[in-house]
Specification:
CATH class of the largest domain: Alpha Beta
Distance between the termini: 61 Å
Helix content: 25-40%
Shape: globular
Strand content: 15-25%
Structural class: alpha/beta
Strand order of the largest sheet: 3-4-2-5-6-1-7
CATH superfamily of the largest domain: P-loop containing nucleotide triphosphate hydrolases
CATH topology of the largest domain: Rossmann fold
């Protein structure tokens, strides 16, 4: 059973959790993966790469085979799904949930924002509700995404008595150790050792987490984890899990490294591909030229007061730069907050919550916000500083143009 302070059924006691404790899955702070590992390797990207007209692809209307009530799910899950107002599954949910409920390994290829969390969370929770001895581990590339997964699992498993631990670097170790001693049904976290944003491997090597007890393994956004340099950590973690495991892998792409993981750890997986176009195809990309650095902020001001710029993430390169830019924009009357690695968990959770609820219009952030943040109504991504790599650029602008909308990306370039 879950510990008393870590039940899925327990409501949040406040708007955010303190850095030393847990309202549900164990202490955590927000943060990114190894996005800083490539500092100093900045590519010289010609500004023409930042100019591209949006070419949105008209998505075919998917006609699902099932409704959520059709799925062979535990009655409690069906009740909570109904309370959330879910009726018709997305394409990845419609196709992945039935074979996953049968215990089959799944490889799901789908864009971000297509409902992948429910596609793995519902079968996973269903298995544990039917057999409380089963345990699951969910691995995500960033702390933001791990937090979002935790919130979804909590809402689906409300009043179930199932318990979980959230293993995230940067948080106090004590609450995580306490949660693990209570043998949580679900462990959600990021890979890595002390000094990196991850904690799963750290706990394994400390002896506080025995992965041989886990027979359900979920990898979300596998491609991003490999891109961030976690391939060896992922292999280590998978090799430590129960040999009689069910694996649920979800990714936006299926490159050779992912194929190798699938071949090494999955058994006759069901592959489901519902990926459409690149997110960036829905993003109109352009540049903003500036001369002396003294006019750069005024150029940004002009952009932000332009009609149609309703909700934007503004990327800057350093934590100090983000903090300074946020204060400058705030002094000019903009509703803005900052998100970077030196913010506490509570501060970062509050900034994201304010941004999602439209209490603020603009979020100034380092690249930590380029991965794992799912906010559907962002109209603009503004690269106040150019990204280190073109891949980073693609991840940044992918925050706009979601859910079929046309988004806009503007990159500041010195003349």
């Amino acid at each position: 059973m879950y510990s008393n302070n870590s039940r899925f059924s327990r409501p949040r006691s406040g708007s955010s959790r303190s850095s030393g404790g847990s309202a549900s899955f164990g202490g955590t702070r927000y943060g990114g993966g190894r996005s800083n590992s490539r500092k100093g390797l900045k590519q010289n990207i010609h500004h023409s790469k930042f100019i591209k007209a949006a070419k949105p692809v008209e998505a075919e209307q998917y006609v699902p085979t099932h409704t959520f009530s059709d799925f062979n799910l535990h009655a409690l899950l069906k009740k909570n799904i109904d309370e959330k107002g879910y009726v018709t599954p997305s394409s990845i949910q419609d196709q992945a949930i039935p074979p996953a409920l049968e215990g089959k390994d799944i490889v799901g290829i789908a864009n971000t924002g297509t409902g992948k969390t429910a596609a793995f969370a519902l079968p996973m929770l269903n298995t544990m509700l039917n057999d409380k001895s089963k345990r699951a581990i969910v691995i995500a590339p960033t702390r933001e995404l791990a937090e979002q997964i935790e919130q979804e699992c909590r809402s689906f498993a409300k009043t179930s008595g199932l318990s979980g631990a959230l293993l995230i670097g940067g948080a106090a170790m004590g609450p995580q150790l306490r949660d693990l001693r209570d043998r949580p049904n679900v462990v959600i976290g990021t890979p890595g050792l002390i000094g990196t944003p991850g904690r799963i491997k750290d706990h394994v090597e400390r002896g506080s987490l025995n992965l041989a007890q886990f027979s359900i393994v979920v990898l979300d956004e596998v491609d991003r984890m490999l891109d961030m340099g976690f391939i060896n950590d992922i292999r280590f973690i998978l090799a430590e899990t129960n040999e009689e495991r069910q694996c649920l892998f979800f990714s936006a792409t299926l490159d050779p490294k992912i194929q190798q993981l699938i071949g090494s750890f999955l058994r006759n997986p069901v592959t489901i591909s519902v990926r459409t176009s690149e997110n960036s195809d829905n993003v109109h990309q352009d540049v903003v030229f500036y001369g002396h650095s003294s006019e750069k902020l005024d150029k940004l001001h002009d952009v932000l007061i332009t009609a149609g710029v309703e909700k934007a993430i503004i990327f800057d390169e350093t934590k100090r730069g983000v903090e300074k830019l946020g204060m400058e924009l705030q002094s000019r009357g903009f509703k803005v907050d900052a998100l970077h690695g030196d913010k506490s968990q509570g501060q970062r959770a509050k900034a994201l919550r304010r941004f999602k609820s439209n209490e603020i219009n603009f979020l100034v952030a380092t690249d930590v916000a380029a991965r794992g943040i799912d906010v559907a109504d962002i109209t603009h991504v503004i690269n106040y500083s150019t990204p280190n790599t073109y891949d980073d650029y693609t991840h940044r602008i992918g925050r706009a143009g979601r859910a079929g909308r046309v988004g806009y990306a503007l990159t500041f370039v010195s003349k």
